Amino acid sequence: MSVEVTVEGHVLVATINRPEARNAVDGEVARGIEAAIDRLEADSGLWIGILAGAPPVFSAGADLKVIAAGGFAELATARGGFAGITRRERTKPIVAAVDGPALAGGTEIVLSCDLVVASEAASFGVPEVKRSLVAAGGALFRLPSRVPFNVAMEWVLTGDPVDAATALRHGLVNRLCPPGGALEAAMALAERVTANAPVAVRESRRAMLAARGADEARGWELSDAAMSAAMGSADFGEGLAAFIEKRPPAWTGR
Q1: Is the pTM for the entire model greater than 0.70?
Q2: If you ran DSSP here, which 8-state letter would residue 8 be given?
Q3: CA 12 vs CA 109, 203, 212: distances in Å
């Protein structure tokens, strides 16, 4: 399979597995990523996802052989857009585990995730302008929301690759680890998230995404709605009880 899925506790791990094609996205990869997200969203016992690429590359982006054959539309799904993820609406967080180059559409897959763990072997870049193309999979508006605007502008207009340390310095990457350690480090970060109440995590994520670019009045509205949803969950009572009883909470995700 072009996308392999495993489950560890409350964490779903999806791995793009086309190393012979530098994990480039074809129709099977796009459908595989979408199916993995479907499973993550549908299973109440899964609280977070990790998206990785089989070493030594995260993803080289779109499969140019497919595009050259006129199959550009095959690289997207109706709900998910390119790679089955760039336009996908979802409720649960996903961590990108990047252990090697994530270029062009590979960077746009990363930008579709909520958190990014990268090894020192990782690199990022949107080189589309070098081929008279534009980064139309979300980078033109997502990248400036992750790194300073003038930095994003330079990366887009030059198309030059960026090493993992630089990406960390500018805020694109949350954690940097040794080569070969991205998946392990991503799992450690995911487990820190799953230690918290799943409903509160989902509501916090939703409010933060919706509040980007909004004024304070909208920010307060979204924050109040998120708090109301969290307090209305079954886990709200468990959180209070665990605190009072000085024990770890036993979250249900409801």
Answers
A1: yes
A2: E
A3: 17, 19, 27
